[in-house]
Amino acid sequence: MHRTQDTYALSHFRQHTGEHLERIREGRVETITQNGEAAMVVMSPERYDFLVHSVERGHLWREALRAYRAGEPGVPAREAIEGLANELDADS
Hints:
Layout: E1 6-9, H1 10-15, H2 17-25, E2 30-34, E3 37-42, H3 45-69, H4 77-91
Parallel strand pairs: 1-2
Antiparallel strand pairs: 2-3
């Protein structure tokens, strides 16, 4: 199952590459099909970086919850909030 916003045949992508790139630069994500099957997903580098960063952040949250449930000592709240604020400021 693919959850992209737009799906196009590879032939359409080849014939209208400029139009596709314009939409992709605006933040759209496109699935390109070949012989009726999804062959690739095309997105901007910024969108890709955001997705990778989100996955990495999710991994950190899962690890923090695991440690909390296991009773392991954590990071003081002030330190965690300051670290998150610094990270979000760096993403700007």
